[in-house]
Write a structure and sequence with these properties.
The structure is a homodimer. By secondary structure, the first copy, chain A, is α/β, with parallel strands linked by helices. The first copy, chain A, folds into 3 domains: 58 residues, no CATH class; 119 residues, Leucine Dehydrogenase, chain A, domain 1 (Rossmann fold, 3-Layer(aba) Sandwich), CATH 3.40.50; 130 residues, Rossmann fold, CATH 3.40.50.720. Helices cover 42% and strands 12% of the residues of chain A. Chain A has 14 helices and 11 strands. In chain A, strands 1-11-8-7-5-6 form a 6-stranded parallel β-sheet. A 3-stranded parallel β-sheet of chain A has the order 3-2-4, sandwiched between helices. The first copy, chain A, has a two-stranded antiparallel sheet with strand order 9-10. In chain A, a hairpin with a 7-residue loop joins β9 and β10. The radius of gyration of chain A is 22 Å and the shape is globular. In chain A, 49% of the residues are buried. At the A-B interface, α1, α9, α11 and β6 of A face α1, α9, α11 and β6 of B. β6 of chain A pairs antiparallel with β6 of chain B, so a sheet runs across the interface. Chains A, B: It catalyses: (6R)-5,10-methenyltetrahydrofolate + H2O = (6R)-10-formyltetrahydrofolate + H(+); (6R)-5,10-methylene-5,6,7,8-tetrahydrofolate + NADP(+) = (6R)-5,10-methenyltetrahydrofolate + NADPH. Chains A, B: Homodimer. Chains A, B: Keywords: Hydrolase, Multifunctional enzyme, NADP, One-carbon metabolism, Oxidoreductase, Photorespiration.
Chain lengths: 389, 389
């Protein structure tokens, strides 16, 4: 039978590298592999501190290592060793799962970003600026924008807000985008989604300058994320956040079966592309998938971004799975202050009995996603410094 | 338990549409859905003949329908009907598989293209032109280039060939690309891969004008393929060929589990993106995948582009699977004229016993891939006409 000789040999080499990296350093394993990548590009900052933050928050490290796909159909089965009887182990109760603490990871990233913002101010007299365009009066969108602006303030990034009424025209939104495109104090532009239904979302997003596209939705950024060997300027924040959580918890991604539920440009699509760059075997499940529970049950890693409360039940999950829940779905709760609370796509109480690691909602992916927005804005400001020198 | 109410309702609606389309017309089912898409763009040709060829060979139809992802967690189980005893059927021997005949499909597409080339000449005095850049003396590359030029000649497309020695510099190749970019009689440019190892493939491909990128490798084309609601100017030819074969055989793609083996930018990546646009559930298997045979065995559709002879055995396949084999691997054969013959990634003799439909190698994907190159070149010439009027 055909066996994948070289693929497996490379995997073994990587596993050995990973083991030694784990033993010798606290940095996520794959960063050490990345250092050998041919396509690391230079950054503006040069201090040790600068490098640390860069490794934690910007594109090159998050893009994974650069290894060749080598298949082989040569037979490789080694001669079978003579079996040695081993004592039957006494079954142990399963270890409690790791609850992945997005808040503390986000806090750590934000404190690195704060230091960088000060460095940039001191060295280049430049303060990173993020412009947010909010159209209409959706309460959830208003909340998200408030969080983002608050997070900017906390790390020293200047924020700009353009608020437009629901009834405004598409061209008025594009005028706002254009003004921010031309404003040198703005390094990142974010159009809060969803836009009112009478607007062409793609046209408006397409108007954002490629160099200020901190949401990473520009097709050129998406194409450069999809194509191995290329570097997008920006990666969508939620996808980066998912990878940050996995890498910082040293979850092995290479060859692992990752099921991504949902395929939006905001989360599902970029996360599936990013996981492929980390050599995961990715399956993309969506609303048209027949029996989504069956394919999800095969996963070593589940990333859910369907936007459906409690869609993923305990019965959908394999024992030991790692679960990253990107869903933030409001559900009625008369005991809560506002009459509702946020819940994930994953039924937490059921999943926690099966998973080896899981993110809570709230307090999981959300805070890290906002930290990644700050990180992308910082990157945009650094890039502006670099191109002006 | 959570059930996907709306997703399923939409699926039922699509199935009903498909059934009525199948009953009333010979055109592939999904084309009828596409007609309802909001984003069909106009073409230069306006005759009935023109529309037919367009439906068969160019971007909009191949991109699939535009349907919303609607999940729901509402319970939907209908009341169970009272079971009526049915007679136990006598097992029938499995039907022989369909051998998908790429040669005849390619011939059909080419004859449509020929008519269009004549139309374009008569209406706009424009003859489509394809430029091929061949570096070095690889025998397989020379053969492929020969086939492509012969195919151009047969349909009336003018071909241009730049042959450079293996020892030439990267800049000399880029000079060739630039000359063809500037030449108005050239509408499509193809750099035959692989390039010699001392060259930066991405830099050379990146020099090809977006409007002449008939191979569809430009990151903007890849990004526009990945993002639903957007239209790439060109889709890589082998990916289009795979979809042509599936659509013309009226293989149902919506919700089906498609396993794509290999993830190159030439085949695996664009095919996985294109299948997602047709609402398939896609898993991407590669050289780092653990136990690739297990995930492949779950597939309703297998598309293999690993470049490993006989990698996919009969035991990797589920009964009734549809197999599209993109591999063309030379293997030694003393009985053949040149001492070798071409074989696919799939062990044909084993797979044919399990599959419901399968492409042979040679005579499957290959000829249709070349037809898609001609189709992309024709599209590029039409686009040039459109932008000059």
């Amino acid at each position: 039978m055909a066996a994948l000789t070289w693929g497996r040999l490379v995997k073994r080499k990587m596993a050995a590298d990973s083991a030694s990296a784990s033993a010798s350093a606290s940095a996520p394993v794959l960063f050490s592999l990345l250092a050998r990548s041919r396509r690391c590009h230079a950054t503006v900052g040069t201090s040790k501190e600068d490098e640390d933050t860069h490794a934690h928050s910007t594109s090159p490290s998050i893009l994974g290592p650069d290894l060749p796909d080598i298949w082989s159909s040569l037979p490789t089965s080694p001669p079978r060793p003579i079996p040695i009887p081993i004592p039957i182990p006494i079954p142990m109760p399963p270890a409690p799962p790791t609850i992945i603490d997005g808040k503390s990871i986000a806090q750590e990233i934000r404190s690195h970003i704060s230091k960088h913002v000060i460095n940039l101010k001191n060295s280049y007299d430049k303060v990173p600026g993020l412009a947010v365009i909010l159209v209409g009066h959706r309460r959830d969108s208003q909340s998200y924008v408030r969080y983002k602006i608050k997070a900017c303030n906390e790390v020293g990034i200047t924020s700009f807000l353009a608020q437009l009424p629901h009834s405004c025209s598409e061209d008025e939104v594009i005028d706002s985008v254009t003004r921010f495109n031309e404003d040198p104090s703005v390094h990142g532009i974010l159009v809060q989604l969803p836009l009112p239904q009478h607007m062409d979302e793609e046209r408006i997003l397409g108007a954002v300058s490629l160099h200020k596209d901190v949401d990473g939705f520009h097709p050129l950024n998406v194409g450069n994320l999809a194509l191995r060997g290329r570097q997008p300027l920006f990666i969508p924040c939620a996808a980066k956040a998912c990878l940050q959580l996995l890498l910082r918890h040293q979850i092995d991604l290479v060859g692992k079966h990752a099921v991504v539920i949902g395929r939006s440009k905001v989360v599902g699509l970029p996360t599936s592309l990013l996981l492929q760059r980390h050599y995961s075997t990715v399956s993309i499940v969506h609303a048209f998938t027949h029996r989504p529970e069956e394919i999800t049950r095969e996963a070593d890693i589940v990333i859910s971004a369907a936007g459906v409360a409690n869609l993923v039940r305990g019965s959908w999950l394999k024992r030991g799975v790692v679960v990253i829940d990107v869903g933030t779905n409001p559900i009625e709760d008369p005991d809560s202050e506002h009459g509702y609370r946020l819940t994930g796509d994953v039924h937490f109480d059921e999943a926690v009995k099966v998973a080896s690691a899981i993110t809570p909602v709230p307090g999981g992916v959300g805070p890290v996603t906002i930290a990644m927005l700050l990180s992308n804005t910082l990157d945009a400001a650094k890039e502006a410094c670099r191109s002006s020198v």
